[in-house]
């Protein structure tokens, strides 16, 4: 009986009971030894803290209620607030009320602190030379992976007091609880079978009741583990996504530079941010349970088996793990690398689809479906064959894994469970019981049965834990692949953000990103270029292509500039340099500080329409909140649209709050006029308009230019249309000289320009004077052509339906008159143009 009761209470249960006893006794003795005053004081402080807690709780509840009500009001008018510390408070509808969400921006100091991790990885990790990380390091289970994973962890769990740490802790607690429950279940299983074999009905029923109770608790634990795993995954993803967004979309224009200048992550940043990040977070959260839980299980179950089966079994188990791990590691394919390449291929395929959707209209006009299908199928084929390759590799690995982990481990388990029976001296507690029970046969068999069932269950759990540990080698390799992709994205973003292109001890190429020596001065009331080469950059580390050797000019408020020249000479390049998209390789560029109101505004060549309402299109890049702050009303917007000749839009589209795919709804000219509406809304001091009226009729074009000028906006127009000269003061002509790399900057309407027009007119007059000669020649040719020659040199008479010679002569005269009239008209137009320029 005594032996049985010892068996019933497990060592763990005993340890817990002893622990509780020890500490309750300690508290009781402490209480007994305290003085009355101390006890009184303690009671008082407890009462005060309860009252203060209740008062605080009431205040918190009241504040929450007020906030909720305020939030509800805010939802109706403006659902987001900008706080002083740069964070944003958003009120989102939740159930019946409103939920407040505060979005904290990542502080610049955090980026500075992380730069070391992402841009200067330790040499030992093999990630680059300690100055610039290399994206080429093969993803796998190596030191590079450890460094990358820990670096990402510092973003995902920024502090020990953060929510993520709390989630991981509670996840860990549930994992431990499940291990403990598995132990209890294994023991209970043994007991139930023993009671069944012994025919002890009462104990058997009691065992079953305990089994059901335990089952309910275990199911709850399992559900919580899954729930917390998903919570951890989404919490990681939220941290990383916000961090990446703060680094990607900021004033440094990293979203443009990442794919246009750096090229470290190719063109598919979207794939990195959406899919790879999700997979990484899911794998990282899963790793905690797929590696942490089996590890705890292994320790606990090994200890238990060591106690019941003895040291021999323990040694057997340990050597088995090492053997299995080394076999699987040696024979497992490089899953990390395979997953990283798969991610890239998935990204390429997806971006092709995204391209097609974005350019559906153009493709449809060309009827380019077949060609696009070919591109898509080709990309898919490459992805498919890569994935098939992975599946093929997995067959061999899965076979090996299954055989080793399921069958050979079971056989090995039976062998170890038999140790107390066949080798009791080496069989630990089981062996001792075996020897003690040798007297009674029935009791001995029941004891063996119980021990075997308990050990078998422990062994099964152990095999499961060991199996999961071994399976997680594969998970770990896959995680290494995702980690490498996410790390590459963040380190590239850091490189772009910090302009970290200086290669230690290496010669940089001319006009590469490590050769940027120019200055951009923000806060100048005008636009100035001083000895600035206009260079089209190439992806780092290659050098760019020089379009203009050195450009110098100044434009002040009220002096409008037209930049003209043939296609591809670098007109838009000047705007890109001014906007900070392209680097200033040499010299000085000065411009106003702000973009938008009272600053400078750029209208790009391809009109852009954002997602959102009709109102959002006019006020872009402002939001509704900014519009209210600027005290602009919808009447103001209506007036602006009328000035841009788009006054009919709100009625046509069904009001300001209509949401549509505006890029498909508005015509080419309407899109350009919407651009002008934005300029009129923001009223910047300077506006750079890149081919902003190419699809607008000339009367509206004139009206738009005049309106902007009336509002005091200084215009810098990029266009090939000479007719725009009349609205500008200066003309920068690009593409001169033999190589097309010279430029001229001149005032419009100068003596020289007048002379040029005079010369052109003279030229035309001279040509018109020759009209009579051309007329006579034309008659002659027509006469020749009208004759039909037959063999022998005679000519046939014209058929009767051919007009008589006199009629024809008259007609020729009429045509001559037309030509003369046309000539006069051309002269008149030219004269008018000269007048306008003189004005
Ligand atoms: N992102 C880029 N990266 C590298 N080179 C570029 C890039 N964009 C344009 N270029 C090149 O720079 C040169 C100048 O381009 P830009 O757009 O300034 O021409 P443009 O004078 O405005 O022509 P257009 O009148 O056709 O608009 C072109 O040869 C073009 O191929």
TrEMBL record:
Q: SUPFAM superfamilies annotated for this entry?
A: P-loop containing nucleoside triphosphate hydrolases
- Gene3D superfamilies recorded: P-loop containing nucleotide triphosphate hydrolases
An example of a Pfam family matching this protein is ABC_membrane_2
CDD domains cross-referenced by the UniProt entry: ABCD_peroxisomal_ALDP
Region annotation Disordered: where it falls in the sequence: 790-839
Keyword Membrane assigned to the entry: answer is yes
Q: Which residues form the ABC transporter domain?
A: 527-761
Describe the location of the ABC transmembrane type-1 domain by residue ranges: 174-404
Q: From what superkingdom does this record's organism come? A: Eukaryota
Family matches, as InterPro entries: AAA+_ATPase, ABC1_TM_dom, ABC_transporter-like_ATP-bd, ABC_transporter-like_CS, ABC_transporter_sub-D, P-loop_NTPase
**Composition bias, Basic and acidic residues:** 803-818
Q: TM segments?
A: 40-61
Give an example GO biological process.
Answer: very long-chain fatty acid catabolic process
Q: Which family does it belong to?
A: Belongs to the ABC transporter superfamily. ABCD family. Peroxisomal fatty acyl CoA transporter (TC 3.A.1.203) subfamily.
Please state what the protein is called: Peroxisomal long-chain fatty acid import protein
Please tell me the species this chain comes from: Sodiomyces alkalinus (strain CBS 110278 / VKM F-3762 / F11) (Alkaliphilic filamentous fungus)
């Amino acid at each position: 009986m005594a032996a049985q009761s010892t068996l019933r209470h497990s060592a763990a249960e005993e340890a817990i009971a002893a622990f509780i006893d020890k500490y309750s006794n300690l508290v009781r003795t402490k209480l007994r030894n305290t003085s009355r005053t101390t006890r009184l004081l303690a009671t008082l402080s407890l009462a005060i803290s309860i009252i203060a807690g209740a008062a605080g709780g009431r205040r918190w509840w009241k504040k929450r209620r007020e906030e909720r009500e305020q939030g509800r009001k805010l939802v109706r008018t403006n659902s987001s607030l900008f706080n002083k510390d740069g964070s944003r408070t958003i009120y989102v509808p939740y159930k019946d009320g409103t939920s407040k969400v505060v979005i904290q921006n990542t502080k610049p100091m955090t980026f500075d602190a992380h730069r070391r991790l992402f841009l200067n990885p330790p040499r030992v990790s093999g990630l680059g030379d300690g100055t610039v990380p290399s994206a080429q390091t093969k993803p796998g289970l190596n030191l590079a992976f450890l460094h990358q994973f820990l670096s990402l962890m510092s973003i995902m769990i920024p502090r020990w007091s953060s929510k993520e740490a709390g989630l991981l802790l509670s996840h860990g607690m549930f994992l431990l609880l499940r291990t403990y429950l598995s132990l209890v279940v294994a023991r209970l299983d043994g007991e139930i079978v023993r009671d069944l074999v012994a025919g002890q009905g009462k104990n058997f029923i009691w065992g079953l009741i305990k089994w059901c109770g335990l089952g309910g608790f275990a199911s709850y634990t399992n559900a919580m583990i899954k729930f917390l795993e998903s919570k951890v995954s989404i919490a990681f993803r939220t941290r990383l996504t916000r961090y990446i967004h703060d680094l990607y979309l900021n004033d440094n224009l990293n979203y443009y530079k990442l794919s246009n200048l750096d090229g470290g992550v190719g063109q598919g940043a979207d794939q990195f941010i959406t899919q790879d990040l999700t997979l990484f977070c899911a794998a990282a959260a899963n790793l905690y349970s797929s590696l942490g839980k089996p590890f705890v299980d292994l320790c606990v179950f090994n200890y238990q088996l060591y106690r019941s089966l003895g040291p021999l079994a323990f040694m057997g188990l340990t050597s088995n793990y090492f053997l299995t791990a080394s076999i699987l590691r040696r024979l497992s394919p490089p899953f990390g690398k395979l997953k990283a390449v798969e991610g890239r291929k998935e990204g390429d395929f997806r971006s092709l689809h995204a391209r097609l959707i974005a350019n559906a209209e153009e493709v449809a006009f060309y009827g380019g479906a077949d060609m696009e299908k070919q591109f898509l199928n080709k990309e898919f084929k490459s992805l498919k064959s890569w994935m098939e390759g992975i599946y093929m590799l997995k067959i061999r690995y899965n076979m090996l894994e299954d055989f080793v982990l399921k069958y050979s481990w079971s056989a090995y388990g039976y062998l170890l469970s038999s140790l107390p029976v066949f080798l009791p001296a080496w069989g630990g507690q089981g062996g001792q019981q075996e020897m003690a029970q040798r007297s009674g046969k029935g009791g001995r068999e029941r004891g063996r049965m119980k021990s075997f069932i308990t050990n078998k269950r422990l062994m099964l759990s152990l095999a499961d834990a060991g199996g999961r540990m071994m399976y997680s080698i594969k998970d770990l390799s896959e995680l290494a692949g995702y980690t490498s992709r996410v790390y590459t994205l963040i380190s590239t973003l850091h490189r772009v953000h910090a302009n970290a292109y200086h290669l230690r001890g290496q010669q940089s190429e001319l006009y590469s990103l490590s050769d940027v020596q120019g200055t951009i001065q923000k806060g100048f009331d005008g636009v100035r270029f001083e000895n600035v080469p206009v260079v089209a950059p190439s992806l780092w580390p290659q050098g760019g292509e020089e379009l203009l050797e050195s450009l110098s000019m100044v434009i002040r408020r009220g002096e409008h500039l037209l930049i003209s020249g043939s296609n591809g000479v670098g007109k838009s390049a000047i705007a890109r340099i001014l906007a900070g998209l392209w680097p200033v390789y040499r010299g000085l560029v000065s411009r106003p500080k702000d973009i938008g109101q009272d600053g400078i505004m750029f209208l790009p060549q391809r009109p852009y329409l954002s997602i959102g309402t009709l109102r959002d299109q006019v006020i872009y890049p402002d939001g509704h909140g900014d519009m209210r702050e600027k005290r602009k009303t919808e009447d103001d917007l209506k007036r602006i649209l009328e000035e841009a000749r788009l006054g009919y839009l709100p009625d046509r589209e069904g009001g300001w709050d209509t949401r549509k795919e505006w890029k498909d709804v508005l015509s080419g000219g309407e899109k350009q006029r919407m651009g002008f509406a934005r300029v009129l809304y923001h009223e910047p001091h300077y506006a750079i308009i890149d081919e902003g009226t190419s699809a607008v009729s000339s009367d509206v074009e004139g009206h738009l230019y005049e309106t902007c000028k009336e509002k005091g906006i200084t215009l810098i127009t990029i266009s090939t249309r000479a007719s725009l000269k009349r609205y500008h003061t200066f003309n920068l002509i690009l593409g001169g000289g033999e190589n097309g790399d010279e430029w001229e900057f001149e005032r419009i309407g100068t003596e020289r320009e007048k002379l040029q027009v005079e010369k052109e007119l003279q030229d035309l007059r001279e040509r018109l004077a020759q009209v009579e000669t051309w007329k006579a020649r034309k008659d002659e040719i027509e006469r020749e052509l009208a004759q039909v020659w037959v063999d022998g040199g005679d000519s046939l008479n014209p058929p009767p339906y051919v007009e008589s010679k006199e009629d024809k002569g008259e007609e020729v005269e009429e045509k001559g008159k037309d030509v003369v009239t046309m000539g006069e008209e051309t002269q008149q137009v030219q004269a008018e143009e000269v007048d306008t320029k003189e004005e």
